[in-house]
Amino acid sequence: MVPEPTRPYAIESIWRGEHHHFEVRFTPRFVATLVNAGGAVDLRRGELLLPGGVRRDAFGVRDDFERRTGNHAPPWLFRWPERDTFVLPRGTIEVDVEPGTTTVVLVPPRACTPIFVCLDAAYLGRPVTYDADAFSALDARVWKPEVRHLHAGVELVGLGARPLERAAAAFEAVCGRSARTCSARRTLVESRLRDVFRLSTALLEIVADGSTSSRAAVDETRRLLPGLPPTSSQPADLIDALGTLRRELAAELMPVRVTVVPSGAHFSALPEMEPLRAQVAGAPIAMDEHGAVVTSGAPLQSATVVLQGRRYVFLPAEDLDDLQLASRHELYHLLEAQLLTPAQRRRLDALHAETVANAGPFARPYGFLRQEFLPTMAEVYEGGYGHEGVDWLRRHHGDLAELLDELTGGRTAARPLRASRRRR
Ligand SMILES: [Zn+2]
Q1: What is the pLDDT of residues 252-297, one digit of tens each?
Q2: Rg value, the chain, Cα
Q3: How far, in Å, from the CA of 85 to the mean position of ligand 1?
Q4: Secondary structure (3-state) at 23
Q5: Ligand 1 centre distance from Cα of residue 160 (Å)
Q6: pTM attached to this predicted model
Q7: What's the CA-to-centroid distance between 130 and ligand 1, angstroms?
Q8: Do strands 18-26 and 9-15 pair parallel, antiparallel, or not at all (unpaired)?
Q9: How far is the CA of 330 from the centre of ligand 1 (A)?
Q10: 289 and 381 in a common domain
Q11: For residue 373, how far is its CA from the centre of ligand 1 (angstroms)?
Q12: In a shared domain, residues 343 and 207
């Protein structure tokens, strides 16, 4: 068919059983160019029909997607210009041509749905289930936790020796190695933080006096911030950059409380969760920095919450006694947020960007989000999908598996925890 200019056409694009609904509109210039060329549009298949029976994918990216993922590509797929991501639109897209050419371009919608492939294997972790009582505030007479020191700035709290030992072992397995090597780094971070405060004060004095005579603080700041473009050497710009660095450094030093949530209780029932209790009840929905929505149907059983300058990491006792997959997932968040070096974080940034550009494969749909990339991949590494998953990780994400070996000291093939699960 030849579309009517500017009229919105409702489209349903199906990919792996999911229905994506959006609208496509064609600009008058596009329609004129199409008519001129003697062409038409196949709305359902997202293709342009050209004379001589030639079919052309509207945005010309489906072949690339199929080559990278080995999966059939859905109609109307395109690459989001904001970011190197294969997406389907949400809302309305407008199809146009570059003036004076036949090159199809699109006016992207405000939001898109990323399309990518994931590991397709059975998850061995057993989600903790909660009854209604699990969410009501814990009785203060029951909740009198023991506090143990795990590492500089990290304490472990919970009830009973066995859950605490299991939590300490999980922390050791995921964070132990980095925690030990980062003690020296912690001292370095503290000293850099002192430099940041001293230089911020010196620069503020320059701004206040309007004097340009004191270059020492400016030069020293530039040495502390080597990534700064040469154009920004104004004291006010430098103060901003120091502020960003201060927040990054402070985050690495944030005190951490790892809490074992007692059997039968949800973490929102703990007294420290009082201010957030109402918010955590709903199903989790995450949105990335470009507005791509990724939902997870899984109930939130473990969690990390930053409250009043402290990071709380909640690990359910049931999970610690099982495969520890939810707990270890949360500990990988802690590892990345506070224990990795900036160089290790940059390696993860690059591996994530590469996976996004290749449309996967991710471990789980919400592993598409940058902050969930390491924890979800680590669940595979920890045996959450059995040997099939471990093989998949080595095959598709060899560099990441290597980084995980480096961070944790490596894993032996089989996890002995399977036995404790069967016993129940
Ligand atoms: Zn997570």
Answers
A1: 888 999 999 999 998 989 988 888 777 665 545 444 444 444 444 4
A2: 26
A3: 21
A4: strand
A5: 26
A6: 0.83
A7: 19
A8: antiparallel
A9: 6
A10: yes
A11: 8
A12: no
